[in-house]
Amino acid sequence: MEDELPEIRQRKIIHVDMDAFYASVEMLDNPELRGKAIAVGGGSSRGVVAAASYEARKFGVRSAMSGFLAKKKCPHLIFVKPRFERYTEISRKIREIFYEYTDKVEPLSLDEAYLDVTVNKKGNPSATLIAAEIRKRILDVTGLTASAGISINKFIAKVASDYNKPNGQKTVNPDEISDFLENLPIGKFYGVGKVTEEKMYQLGIFTGKDLKEKSEEYLIEHFGKSGGYYYHVVRGIHNSEVKSDRIAKSVGTEHTFFENLVSEVFMMEKLDDIANELDRRLGKKKIAGKTVTLKIKYSDFTVQTRSKTLPYFISDKSLILETVKELLYQEKPKDSVRLLGISLSNLNTDTDTGKPNKPIAVQLKFDF
Predict the structure, then answer these.
(1) Among 51, 79, 48, 26, which Cα is nearest to 258's?
(2) Which coenzymes or cofactors are required (predicted)?
């Protein structure tokens, strides 16, 4: 295991995370909202909060919280209707900045990404200085602030980016990793959710140091495969590379609604919009697939998927939507619906290169 460390230490990874992205965009476009407690989405009894400003977070308002509960926690909360086209537009500008420094960019969502700057376009040996420069460029171009974490792997960089939020950054040098992780509260470990955090508390694991004292066998016994992950990351070992050209196994899109849907008619209207977006993505990638999957997330957060595999490749919106309609009506939804998604898998891409086949469709210590 120790033999892996010299290779790992050669990497310089930055995790950039925008600060309260959706809420910050709304404040940017509407200066009257600046400094106020706002929530994007969630503006009705059945609504769900998509994002909250830091002013709202002080009162306990969080994403995925019901609008009713959010208003109860923060009576003066201002609800704002989401504008995903605007968020996507700004996200593209941010990614263009990333590519000025490296082609090794792995976006996680509209507002965060990993960058491998071990070798970079600026020839700058300091990942810390690059991160600071990127954050300044983002502020200059978009008017928004970002935070960053810098270290030798994706896991530590991700954890570090949350350390000095908002509008800050944290570098964890190779010789600081052990102390940093040992002193970290267990809930701050990326991959440890609320349920796992509670279970760890019951086992006497409150910090990285407590976690490090447990054997790999013990952690696997109590947490399954995740136990092996916890055993390694608390020792600073995480070999996953920044994947800028990940081979797609599926192409999909999904929307979370801020008022839960109860009628299949309304669901089909939303699925038509989702299919339009998927159609654009498929056209851009020039790929098709055989398996259509409908994803349904209910108001109680349970998820159901329904799939159908066709005997031929499709990429046309009308054919996808026809299959989705069949999947939707094959069984009545068990509850009101807060998210719908459509994905296409079993793609006509080569498994080695990720490039489309011909269509057969009917259509050491570093200076950080």
Answers:
(1) 48
(2) Mg(2+)
